[in-house]
Design a protein that fits this description.
Elements: E1 2-6, H1 13-24, E2 28-30, H2 31-41, H3 44-54, H4 61-72, E3 81-84, H5 90-102, E4 109-114, H6 117-130, H7 138-161, E5 165-169, H8 174-185
Parallel strand pairs: 1-3, 1-4, 2-3, 4-5
Protein name: Adenylate kinase
Catalytic activity: AMP + ATP = 2 ADP
Subunit structure: Monomer.
Amino acid sequence: MRLVLLGPPGSGKGTQAARLKEYLQVPHISTGDLLRAEVAAGSPLGLQAKEIMARGDFVSDEILLGMLEDRFARPDTANGFILDGYPRNLAQAGALGTLLDKIGQPMDYAVQLEVPADLLVERIAGRAAAEGRDDDTPEVVRNRLDKYTTQTAPVIDYYRQHGQLTVVDGVGTLDEVFSRLIEALSPAKEVG
């Protein structure tokens, strides 16, 4: 199964992706982790990315897509993957679809974890307090959520128009949300 997990900060994407990885027996591919690993390994794309990041610039979609193409070529993705952190905008969604078609691994689902903004702010504030971070104030969190919503709304619509989107209620215990995810990913589930 090949799927993209969508959801704002605090929605539980990372936690649920780790559980889905075990359940589905496919790798969880976080583009942030992938980027850091490629830079650390000194791969050609990693070296390009390192130079760009050293200037304080964002790594281009082309480099990220190249890293994803290399990652998808590894044997552990033969039965699928869980993609987290990409695509973040409409151009990336289109490029990802083109890449997956090219390598013969079309996307099965895009799953959006839906959580009310007030609860997201509460979750992130709790996480920040537990980790001793002072950069996750409610104002900063709301700003990040606004940016996420602005950038990601077109991606959600893209997958909805392609009949690949399913929305899962991300409120509840970890087990409740995980059960909803499994149900949403069952072959009999209607998406779109």
